[in-house]
């Protein structure tokens, strides 16, 4: 990530402008003008919203309850327009052994209201001792959702193999941004991680807690770190799984991921070569990688037909990128099956996608998940400004191809933030604070690279780092990689509040 936005430290200087910083003390200590939000009474209710609401049904079945918390749309004008932030709660069952309240964010940015039952299972005995809170951040899920009417579920695309592919990527990014420019401008102007952190503090106050614990992965580590910086003293036991480097969060967040993804692709190619009798993609790592390159080249010459979908060299590498966050056998098999399908299509033969590939193509090439991508970009572009000149992107892409031929054009490609119709209303938060916490990172993480976890650990004084060595995996705790060493360290900390005496490496 080469774009480095100007940073400032959140603190008392901002509090007088927008009433932003709470101070330790009672559960509802808050700046002037926000008292009515912190002391509001909420109504817990069933989570199911209608017959097709599977998320709500699952929450109800698990015994969770849901509520809406009213927050200011613009914290600088607490007397103005308000929005609703949706939360769920799975109450502690530990009786007198209850530890407290834990707020959960699974990254994305995406919804988190569905997560308490899942996280309770991951936490073992400790899970029963917390009130687990799932919260959809503003613009996402049930919290003032944004939908720009995108023809795709994601903004991530490759620049392709040549200038023609890049020009298509520029047009795609501009179209997505133009669609978002037509959405409620006041709402869009107030979507940011800083405002999501302020919403968390209102939720904390409404729940009557002086402190809350926090369990965040991926983007959730950035949200948690921003909250810790803006509201010092409000976090208790804190887990940050596969951390984001706060200085890198913004439109260029994928820069720096090329090497990790090329390495993970090579590891997958070795695995696949040993199973050539099954997949027919090559008997050596090099042969399998050459097959991938030939398929991408074929998609550039003529888009590949896979069932009802058409896949070009903008889509295919970003699709591969989506598979490489998991190095376990089932995920590697899914990727090998997908490449086998594309190899068949490149040979001009009719082919249908399997179930997993069909879901991925529908996500990338139809508007069924428009809300997901729209909300994600609203937060990303609302947090930090980035490069806007397409030629600068093109030059970076060309330089990146030499070392990272498949994923350099993904990591450095232009995205809708380059055409975003408004600039962020605040500078990003510079994170540097004391937060006794546990940071978890895998050495082969392809999404938030391992170096980012090391960086956040250094920025959070009093934290400890758990390193999962030798795994190409994103969010090893929350995504249930199943490493006993990681799980025991995390769950032991969440149960006792005692951090390891030193950093730990798990193999």
List the helices and strands and how they pair.
Layout: H1 12-18, H2 35-38, H3 54-62, E1 65-72, E2 82-90, E3 100-105, H4 116-122, E4 130-135, H5 163-181, H6 185-189, H7 193-206, E5 212-217, H8 219-230, E6 235-241, H9 258-273, H10 276-279, H11 285-301, E7 304-306, E8 309-311, H12 315-323, H13 329-346, H14 355-365, H15 370-383, H16 390-401, H17 408-411, E9 433-434, E10 438-442, H18 450-459, E11 460-461, E12 464-468, H19 484-496, E13 504-506
Parallel strand pairs: 3-4, 3-5, 5-6, 6-10, 9-11, 10-12, 12-13
Antiparallel strand pairs: 1-2, 2-4, 7-8
Helix pairs in contact: 7-8, 9-11, 11-13
In short:
By secondary structure, the protein is an alpha/beta fold. Helices cover 40% and strands 13% of the residues.
Mean pLDDT over the residues = 93
Uncertain residue ranges: 1-25
The chain-level structural class is alpha/beta
**What is the count of β-strands?**
13
Helix proportion range: 40-55%
N- and C-termini, Cα separation: 28 Å
Percentage of β-strand residues: 5-15%
What is the helix tally?
19
Approximate shape = globular
Radius of gyration in whole Å, from Cα?
23 Å
Walk across the major sheet and give the strand order: 1-2-4-3-5-6-10-12-13
Q: Major sheet: size, sense and barrel closure?
A: 9 strands, mixed
